[in-house]
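Below is how a single chain appears once it has passed through the pipeline. First comes the sequence as given, then the structure the pipeline wrote out for it. We keep one example in the README because the format questions we get most often are answered faster by looking than by reading.
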Amino acid sequence: MNLNEIKLPVEEHIREFEKQFRDSMKSKVPLLDKITRYIVKRKGKQIRPLFVFFSAAMCGGITEKTYRAASLIELLHTATLVHDDVVDDSNERRGFFSLNALWKNKISVLVGDYLLSRGLLLAVENNDFNLLKIVSHSVKQMSEGELLQLEKARNLDIKEDVYFDIITKKTASLIASCLESGAASAGADIETQQKLRMAGQYTGIAFQIKDDLLDYRSDKKTGKPSGGDIKERKMTLPLLYLLDQSGFSEKRKIINIVKNHNNDPDKVGKLIEMVNKSGGADYAGKKMEENLEKAFEILETMPDNPWRKSLKDLVQFTIDRDN
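Resulting structure:
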């Protein structure tokens, strides 16, 4: 099932959300208004708002508060992406130039701060303190996950439990907050909110492992795996499995490639081949499926209605995608 088919039941809600999201970013400062229009234009697949709307619909119905929950998540998440691009010195995101590539770092940092403040005000002005608590907790975890990953990238001393800690904080916490805030916006009880938070967390873990696996599969254009994570010295699950299966001297060679030869296409290509031969990609695939199954088990305890099916289809899409 493709994303457009999944989106159909909430298409009108998504259009209204986009309008409200645009309005939430408006400013009387011309430069800021120009930049926020650019941000809206380069929007991604909108998976996060979909999680919010399906969760709310399943738990009683989409309300005005649901639109604010989706906008709050997008504002705070977009702020973190803008700051990430500055930190990573990235020139591109989703096929568009990043803000710092067009307007330099100082302006980008200030725009990130502006988006953060708009999100905070949106929640406070509407007394959505429960939504603010949910999403702020997620942003805190995302920051911790990024810092933990940066710390471990220096020495490459990461173990599997640390890897899962990083991706739970860095990626899964945001999807968890989408499902939790969607349920909260529909007036669901705390127990239901927490159950959906866990479903979102398992989905987010599976989503990140899928991202890791895409790095080890052949690119449609080049016919070769990208090896992007190795180039960035990220120790992902397929590579960790190879390390765990290797002897001391082999481990040293692998670490040496990641640390000192991560921009050498031949050595990166050889390392990817070693990972795939070791069963690293297969192992990661099993872990992805395990987390997906845990998410589905929780969703099966929710009311059996068409919205639950839509939500399950969206969860499945997160690992069926090819980019």
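The longest helix spans residues 99-125.

See the next section for the split statistics.
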